[in-house]
Structure formats: C-alpha cells, structure tokens
Amino acid sequence: MIGYSKCQGRCICVLVVLFMPYALAQELATPKIVADPEVKLVDREGAGKLYTVADQWLIVMEGTPAEMGFQHGRLLAKQIRHIIKEGYMVKAFYSRGYTKEYINAQSERMEKHFPPEYIEEMRGLVKGLEAAGVHDIAYEDIRAAVTQAELAHHKPNEPPELKRPDTSPPPQQCSNFAAWGKWTKDGRLLHGRNLDWNIEGGAQENAIILVWRPAKGIPFMMLGWTGGIGSVSGMNAKGITIGEMTSVSSEESFDGLPLMLIMRRVLETAGTLDEAVAVIQKGPRTTGWNFVIGDGKIPSARALEVDAVDCGVFGPMDPKETEETGHWAMEDAIRRTNHPIGMNQLHKLAIRFGAQFGIDADNIKAAIPLLKLQNTWQRYDWLGKQIMARPGEMDVTEATQLLANGPVGGKDTQTLHSFVFDPACKTAYVAVAASNPPVPAPLTQYVKIDLAEWFKERVSGPEPAKAPERKPKSKKNI
To answer: FRET partner for 293 with CA separation of 20 to 30 A, picked from 30, 234, 276, 421?
Structure first.
C-alpha cells in the first residue's frame, strides 16, 4: 500500500531541491545481497503456503479466485488485521481525516470496473479471515486496500474533479530503469525500481511478496502488503516486469480501474511487451502515473505516461524524448521518475500548476530550466549517465548500486521497497525498509527470490527446491 506522507500536499513538480553534481567516477556503495537465503515453510492452507525467505515473508496462493483469497486471509489474518485496524491504513487515512463514508463512496466508483474474479477473490479473503477468527474486517476494508493509491492523491474527502492545486500527492522519489543489450554483461534485461513514500508510515511492517498461481492465467508475483490483491511492482512467468511512479496530471478520475489492479491485470494476462502495453492503453485508467514495463524475452522495455484520458508510449531512442523537453533518449535502456517527458503530459502538468508559479502552459520550453532544478529530473539524469558510464558492465550488483546511491537512493530517501528483476533467470532481488528504526529499503539487504518453481505452469502446486516441508509454526507466532 502506498499513499501516506508527512509531506502531503507539496507538489513534486515545484520542489526545488538542488543536488551537488555526482561524479560518475565516484565509487558507489554496494548494498548487501543475500544470494542463498534460507527458505522455510511456516504454514499452509489447502494449496496455499506461507514462507519466510531470509527476513522476508512470501505467500503462494493457488487455485480459483475464491480459493486464493481464502488462503490469503487465513494464512495472514493477524498481519491483515494489523495493517487495517492498527497500522498503515489508520495512519495514512483515518487518523488524517478521511472518513469511511468518503473512502467507500470513491471505492465504489472504482469497483464498477473490477473484473468479477477480483471481487470473488476479495470475498474469499474475508472468509479466510473469519476462518482464522478475525471477524472485524469487512469486504469494504479489503476493497479500500486496493483503491487507496488513488484516494491518497487528494486531500481528505475531496473528489478529483475539483482539481485543486493543493490536492496533489507528496513529493516522491520513485525511480525505474530497465537496461539490456549493450549495457548488461550478457545482454539480458535487468529492471530496477525504488518505491518511495514515507517509511515512517509503517507500511513496511506488513510487507509481503505475493505469488499467485491461478487456475486460469499466468503465474505472477508482486511486492506488496498483506490484505492487498494487487500492488505496484511485479513480474510474471512470461518475463514481463512492471513498476510505477506517480506523475501528476490535470486529467484525473475515480471512474477507472485502480492502479494496483491494472498493474495486476498486466501481469496475469500479458505474455508479450505489446500485450502488456495494450492492457494499460485499454484501461480504464484513473490518474497520473508513469510506468516502466520490461520483457526479458526480447529483451526490451517501454515507458508509459498516462492519466485518465491519455496514454503515451515511449521506446528506446524515442524521438519524443528530446532536448526540446529537457530530456534525452537512450539506446537499450528506459528510465523514468516522477515527471512526464512527453509534450502532451508536460502541457497538462502546466495547466494544473502553471498559474501558481508563473508558468505559461502554452510555453513549455520556458519552464524547462525550472524542471531541471527538481529532484525528479536529477534522478532521471543521474540514472541515464550512470548507465552510460558502464557499457557492458551492468549486472545485478551494479543495478542495486544505482538504486542505493546518488539522488536515487540513500539514507535521506523514503524507499519502502526496492527490487532488481532478472526475468530471464526468473529471479527477483528484493529489499524492504526496516521499521524500528526506519531504514530505507536499499540500505537493508536485497534477498534473492528464486521464482522458477512457482512460475512453472500450474499442475499440482510444486514445492520450491529449497523449501522442504517443515512442521508449521504455531499461528500465534506468525
């Protein structure tokens, strides 16, 4: 879940945060990587299984939507209740003035676009909670968990149609890059991503790696939170990867499929890069986002700049990514942060906020010098130059360095989770922020998650090679 920050209400596009130039030759800090983690089976429910992988939780759900939802609810009941009744949802919304009536009303607007199987899965999740003895979590609470990214884009109890300048999200530092071909050691695609919000909000307390093995569909995983049937980072068995970043637009609505579910839709239905892009294009979408979508089979990637109305698609060496808008395209690489690059979305950004800062929405070129002072542009520029400084050298270790250094990462960031996806090898390297005290994810450790067994076509629910059956722990210890 995302959406809480003590900086709520400040705009990423007008935050003038200057960084000292980072010399490309400087030695970058190397994060810790746990390459051979211990995998333990903790509990099971039907075909569903709960594991720990080093210090991280991982759940595998298998079967029909109702079965997968029940497994989720029964195996993670304690954590789900905590995040909804005591932890993140309370801190991010209810304690800040969002009413349940408002959340339910806006969530109902988005629910009209839910595929029926998602509703079936959420109802199954509630039944799993009840089977575990948790009776104070309703279907509406689970629905709020997958619509809250949109809700958090606006001040408490205000619909997006008001389009007030002060209802923009907090200044984030989410970053994505995909590199392949001439930049990586063997040409395969590596996709790196930082999800930044407020690590003091406690979302990391209930972080989990979710693996779905649907009776019908592609096996896939997402880095998420207990109780959520979708999230904002993921990879599937067909080598498709996806990560997002907030990018504010003047075209926003609650009448669409929420972010966490449209990203899930990509992973469970798309076998190719074109199919993944088509899912986002089809929508219906809600608000402003940037996406980086990779395909390890080709390999290649695309950047998407979207809102409720438009969807711009960018490839490597894209002619739309030019100095005219203060940017520069790359061969065999895509990177994005929290601002648009295409002229269309830049124009919408200026419409939304230009009057506040003396920017003429019809003269975008005049605003480029201001854009280059922003943290979001600094990260975009730094990532590109760091990739270009190491042709043929990028591997998983180097990819984690880009996520943990410079303006992208470090002790002053708010990174909830960080990953490097290696789809050709069906592996993910995942870091999660520490809670007490809060520590940004890249400064903890990256744990290698071997997804090869779980990404096999569903037959009878194979066990991962490194996860022998063990006596489950008592549920009171989970």
So the answer is: 30
Question: Does residue 133 lie within any of the structural domains?
Answer: yes
Q: Which amino acid is at 105?
A: A
Which amino acid type is present at position 440? P
Model confidence pTM above 0.85: yes
- The pLDDT assigned to 459 comes to 62
Its domain, for residue 420, covers 33-161+169-457
* CB-based burial, 162-191: b 16+ in 10 Å, e otherwise: ebeeebbbbbbbbbbbbbbbebbeeebbbb
Q: How many domains does the chain have?
A: 1
Cα(354)–Cα(344) distance, integer angstroms: 15
SS3 149: helix
Q: Does residue 208 form part of some domain? A: yes
pLDDT lower than 70: segments of the chain: 1-26, 161-172, 354-358, 361, 459-478
User: Could you tell me the CATH number of the domain that includes residue 401?
Assistant: 3.60.60.10
Residue 185 near residue 126 (C-beta atoms within 8 A): no
CA gap 423, 452 in Å, rounded: 10
DSSP code at position 211: E
Is there a domain that residue 24 lies in? no
For 202: left if phi > 0, alpha if psi spans -120 to 50, otherwise beta; the answer is left
